[in-house]
Design a protein that fits this description.
Oligomer: single chain
CATH class of the largest domain: Alpha Beta
CATH topology of the largest domain: nicotinate phosphoribosyltransferase
Structural class: alpha/beta
GO molecular function: glycosyltransferase activity; metal ion binding; nicotinate phosphoribosyltransferase activity
CATH superfamily of the largest domain: nicotinate phosphoribosyltransferase
Distance between the termini: 64 Å
Strand order of the largest sheet: 17-16-3-7-5-23
Largest sheet: 6 strands, antiparallel
Catalytic activity: 5-phospho-alpha-D-ribose 1-diphosphate + nicotinate + ATP + H2O = nicotinate beta-D-ribonucleotide + ADP + phosphate + diphosphate
Radius of gyration: 29 Å
Cofactor: Mg(2+); Mn(2+)
Number of strands: 24
InterPro entries: Aldolase_TIM, N/Namide_PRibTrfase, NAPRTase_C, NAPRTase_N, Nic_PRibTrfase-Fam, Nic_PRibTrfase_pncB, Nicotinate_pribotase-like_C
Pathway: Cofactor biosynthesis; NAD(+) biosynthesis; nicotinate D-ribonucleotide from nicotinate: step 1/1
Number of helices: 17
């Protein structure tokens, strides 16, 4: 994936003064162009233009209606790619020619001249910070600008936010179940929905709390730490130690050389058979596996991590690994650990840990009991939770398919709704109350309680006075008149900030780095009550509107809904 050349400069609000910023590069994925949209966006653009409405000033909200995975929170992601997209939005002559071919031959030529001249210099984008914990109905982004132009942004924006937020949320949920101290590795590239899904998932899993990826392309593009060792194929490709030709290994400090590392390993393997915990556990281990481990250790003596379940974990894999690890220890190297990819992960990890501790105690090898244990094999939230309940000795988890494909829920369901045009609030009605939109240009706030946890999000009209710390405010459910509560916030946080001012004389927020977004995400999750975060029966987080906005929603609802007539 190549980034396009930067085009548009701006200024950044750093809290003290406006400063010039580097130009914003184009989208990471070169497929993200103005043509990455639905045909009806162009048909509507023509109809707006034909009616003389294309420059009407419109306000759209991008939000979602329901939290994914049966949970009660979502992590917002994809904002940076949206800003990269609009910063470089321009239809080429070739793209305009293609649009001409797709539309009716009755479309006037002047419309295509209009398409050639549009960009996003008259568009403003306000958004919640990427990596923030967010909730249904609260706008993630507010997009203001000429209605025809903003409609052309709808599909790519929804596309860029939907998957990114879904995967980031999935990663955050896995992190919550695994706990803060476990290493989480994303191994999903081969099972992802194509190259774009794979690279995007790696990026957003890291944002959501994973520590590393196996995806080299994502490592190069985004600076994500890489992890990976070898597969079962590498182990089964060997037949025995006799085929190892280069047997020498220099010590870690360079002071000496072991001329026959194979013999050193075999010596340690024989010693292991004399351990108290080895009796009846293993006799002759698989020699092809041993050869594979020795070869890998000779190639990567400072990063030796072995997959131990190709043949038999306890009777072959573990003792073979330990023999190689002890030989490496003699040469000043410390083995990284093992990976379990099948079987009873809780039981096998505990048995492996016991064996490591026995070696440390009986052979007096300091630190051997703390050798790392990684588990993989189609892990998901449920299996992580089950492992926690059973008790295990796994230090890191490699998670792939269920993580990157969002197997338990394939889509988030973001929507893009018109809430105001030419300063006139608009509402979308439905028999399904969850699909009724909240009209007008709004501000959003998060209210925090005495313990520092978020209590409620509240939306208010743009011109309403904001909530204040220590002052009681009435928070109302947008549609249910009986659900209401007074809140005295100890801290008030305004959620939406300007990330693209267009030609307006406003400073824009800087686009943070991936590391900064990840750090922000972790801090956000820490500020949520655990009952909102838990897997089973999480407590719903309250999303509300001000009393004034509540009254206006219902006034507009009654005003717009047709009155039936009974005969």
């Amino acid at each position: 994936m190549m980034e396009s050349t930067p085009k548009i400069n701006g200024s950044v609000n750093d809290g003290n003064h406006n400063r010039p910023t580097p130009a914003i590069h184009g989208p990471t994925n070169p497929m993200v162009t103005p043509l990455l949209t639905d045909l009806y966006q162009f048909t509507m653009a023509y109809a707006y233009w034909k009616a003389g409405k294309h420059n009407d000033r419109a306000v759209f909200d991008l939000y979602f209606r329901r939290n994914p995975f049966g949970g009660e929170y979502t992590v917002f992601a994809g904002l940076e790619e949206c800003i990269r997209f609009i910063a470089n939005f321009k239809l080429s002559k070739e793209e305009i020619s293609f649009v001409r071919e797709c539309l009716s031959p009755t479309c006037e030529d002047a419309f295509f001249d209009y398409l050639g001249g549009i960009n996003c210099s008259d568009v403003e984008v306000y958004a919640i910070a990427e990596g923030s914990v967010v909730f249904p109905k609260v706008p993630l982004m507010r997009i203001e600008g000429p209605v025809a132009v903003v409609q052309l942004l709808e599909t790519p924006f929804v596309n860029l936010i939907n998957f990114a937020s879904l995967v980031t949320t999935n990663a955050a949920r896995h992190r919550f179940v695994a706990g803060k101290n476990k290493l989480l590795l994303e191994f999903g590239l081969r099972r992802a929905q194509g190259p774009d899904g794979g690279v995007g998932a790696s990026r957003y899993c890291y944002m959501g709390g994973f520590d590393a990826t196996s995806n080299c392309a994502a490592g190069k593009l985004f600076g994500i730490p890489l992890r990976g060792t070898h597969s079962h194929a590498f182990v089964s490709s060997f037949t025995g130690p006799d085929e190892i030709t280069e047997k020498s290994l220099q010590s870690r400090d360079g002071s000496r050389v072991c001329n026959n590392f194979v013999d050193l390993t075999l010596m340690w393997l024989n010693k292991l058979k004399g351990l108290s915990s080895s009796e009846g556990v293993f006799g002759e281990t698989n020699q092809s596996e041993l050869a594979a481990f020795i070869s890998y250790a000779l190639a990567f003596p400072d990063n030796f991590l072995a997959l131990v379940d190709t043949y038999d974990v306890m009777r072959s894999g573990i003792p073979n690994f330990c023999a190689v690890a002890l030989a490496l220890n003699d040469m000043g190297y410390i083995a990284k650990g093992i990976r379990l990819d099948s079987g009873d992960l809780a039981y096998l990890s505990c048995e492996a840990r016991k064996f490591f501790h026995t070696i440390e105690k009986e052979l007096r090898v300091s630190g051997f009991g703390k050798i790392g244990i990684t588990a993989s094999n189609d892990l998901n939230e449920e299996t992580l939770d089950a492992l926690n309940k059973q008790g295990h000795e796994v230090d890191s988890f490699g998670i792939g398919t269920n993580l990157v494909t969002c197997f338990s829920q394939p889509a988030l369901g973001c929507v893009f709704k018109l809430v105001e045009i030419n300063n006139q609030p608009r509402i979308k009605l439905s028999e399904d109350v969850s699909k009724v939109s909240i009209p007008c240009k709004k501000r959003s706030f998060r209210l925090y309680g005495k313990e520092g946890y978020a209590l409620v999000d509240i939306m208010s009209g743009e011109n309403e006075p904001p909530p204040k710390e220590g002052q009681r405010i009435l928070c109302r459910h947008p549609f249910n008149e009986s659900k209401r509560a007074y809140v005295v916030p100890q801290h008030v946080e305004e959620l939406m900030k300007c990330y693209w001012p267009g030609s307006a004389d406003k400073a824009r927020e800087d686009l943070p780095t991936l590391e900064q977004i990840r750090e922000h995400c972790m801090k956000q999750l820490e500020r949520m009550r655990t009952d909102h975060m838990r897997r089973l029966n999480p407590t719903p987080y309250k999303v509300s509107v001000s009393a004034k906005l509540y009254e206006f929603i219902h006034f507009l609802w009654l005003n717009e809904a047709p009155v039936g007539e009974l005969q």
